[in-house]
Amino acid sequence: MAIHKDTRAYNAGQAAAERRICDALARIIDRQLPGAENKVWHRHPVWFLDGNPIVGYSKLKDCIRLLFWSGQSFDEPRLAPEGSFKAAEARYTSEDEVSEKDLKRWLKKSVEIQWDYKNIVKRRGRLERLESVDWRVEMLARVRALIKQAVPDVVEEMKWAKRSNPGGVPVWSCGGGMICTGETYKDVVKLTFAKGASLADPSGLFNASLEGNTRRAIDLRAGDTIKEKAFKALVRAAAALCHDKE
What we know:
Elements: H1 5-12, H2 16-32, E1 37-41, E2 44-49, E3 52-59, E4 64-68, E5 80-81, E6 88-92, H3 100-112, E7 114-115, E8 129-130, H4 135-150, E9 155-159, E10 169-174, E11 177-184, E12 189-193, E13 216-220, H5 228-243
Antiparallel strand pairs: 1-2, 2-3, 3-4, 4-6, 5-6, 7-8, 9-10, 10-11, 11-12, 12-13
Helix pairs in contact: 1-2, 2-3, 4-5
């Protein structure tokens, strides 16, 4: 899976030794968190799950710092506490110091153990632990991974943030056109395809917003299985429409 272009640009802007560290970290993180949203946030690469920051790295004066926002709860002696909340860090001065085995273990814990930084402002600085990963987060992560597999150069942005949903809504696009959005509600994850009415759907994936002239949607509920082959074909067809001249 391709690393986000902004992350690649950040890595390329480092000196040779630091660039190798950054490339190694990005490669492992992106492979282990296939459903995460990656972007440059506060000037350095960060990976998010459902709008919650999970892991990122940054250039310090004499090293590259890898930061896990919930890392103090991982019980990992190689991760040192950082700051006054729950973050923990590891520092690297050479690519040889990056242990893929350790990093894979930490990344697994980063999904299972999360503190809710996304809503820390709404809670006036009080940090609460997410007791379990919401099925909707896991479903959206799976969808995100499939979309990236279907269209490797897809662009994902978070839009329409509001007080009740400070993380916003993920929007996938390419060629200047929108493929689909991914909204989470109490009982469903709704994937709305901007030009869904123009798409062939032989597998019958569309099951919502069927009355519209333009859009079509897929409502996914807890326990649903995604027909991966059919879904990726649908995404590729939607991406092809984004490039059509009208």
